[in-house]
Amino acid sequence: MKIINIKHLVLILPFIILGCYEDMDDNPISDTEIKDFIWSGLNTWYYWQDQVIDLADDRFLDTTDYSEFLNSFDTPDQMFYSLLSDQDRFSWIVDDYFALNNTLNGVSKSNGMEFGVGLIDGGSNAFGVVQYVLPNTSASTNNLQRGNFFLTVDGIQLTENNYRNLLFFGSDTYTIGLAELDTSNNLVLTGQTVTLTKQVYEENPILIANTFTVEGIKVGYLMYNRFTSGYDQQLNNIFGQFAAEGVQDLVLDLRYNPGGSVNSAINLGSMIAGEPTTSVFLKQQWNNKIQAILTDEQVNKYFTNQLSDGTSINTLNLNKVYILAQGSSASASELVINCLRPYLDVVHIGDVTVGKNEFSTTLYDSPSCNYSCTTGVNPNHTWAMQPLVGKSENADGFFEYETGLIPTLTLEENVANYGILGQQDEPLLARAIQHITGNGRFSNQPVLNTLKIEDYSKLNTITKDNMYIDSEGLNVFK
């Protein structure tokens, strides 16, 4: 699949097919068909539609003018990115919506190593560090562990300019050169190498769920790494176990969660808070055309007491929750923090989050349902868009956190002392436990400034830090 990387009244016009575009499989498809879909879909749904001159409803004089505009671009993706607002950091497009849909459901190629990347001593050389390992993968078979460092891929030193190609866009099989910190806190190669192979893999976003008692307080701990709707039932079962065990305080670990399904975020928030279904979880802001035809019921999304299949939600009915989040926590993770705050005391421990308050939806070339479903999709191509179509605010009307959510208690992860996830002495979890018990002062361990993480493996996937609503059947024109 060709992945197109992100940069830094339906109007359907008749047109004449003027050219062909060769896709990755060398199948000729209509260049103009794809471009018409892109323009029409963005004209209908794009959040900043009224601010982009070329997306205006009266932009073109006639069919000829429109066709000339479409064919002024060399490729569909060039046209797509040219139509985005300068405020847009997250919209993207792909040429294979089958792969996109799989990824949204948690299925993609993975070698099981999730990691961070940083620069060494502020220079151009880079390092990687394992953050967690997925079970039943190449990484787990090779006994990689959280905190393992690596400096090379296939014998090539990682740098600021090459690490993406080597780790994300190169071969499905590569060999990393492991490293360790010497007595002067310098990274040096150990001579040990590990060969990893990516395979099609469905990730369970629930990595760890356990309970423990500390000073007579029953604490639940959940590490949840993506909002994937297919695992909502399992998530609900875990909250049932938490309730049965009498959990009094919850530590929700979203530090490596880049986002996902808005519906799953609402479900999770409902499992935590137990608010009545009349309480607003979030309010959606759409572009002016869409907002004008939506009812309050369509704009407001409420806490829920059941999953989509009718299963009753298990809830802890908490009035306080501890959430671990940092610079790799985005979109739906931030949504949960922001939307619980009007109802609960949310203690955010970690670092400043990404700052993604917009949601997207998948648009297909299906004009009969205003591009929001796969019914009647154009069989001539498989391009799809994931444009930002709105912003979410909480019940108090707050949504302006584009620079990230500020933690209640700041504690950066220290790559030299990651700790073991889920264990009570892991630094971020230990800080939450200390706050729960009120047990003394906490001394932050110094972070090695020369080894700070700047990028994350999950933010280099197809879905990146996407927060999306289900587009199937989203036909507000009915």
Automatic annotation (TrEMBL):
One of its GO terms (molecular function) is peptidase activity. It comes from the Bacteria. Keywords: Hydrolase, Protease. It holds the Pfam family Pept_S41_N. Residues 192-412 form the Tail specific protease domain. CDD domains: Peptidase_S41_CPP_like. GO terms for biological process: proteolysis. This is Carboxyl-terminal protease. It comes from Olleya marilimosa.
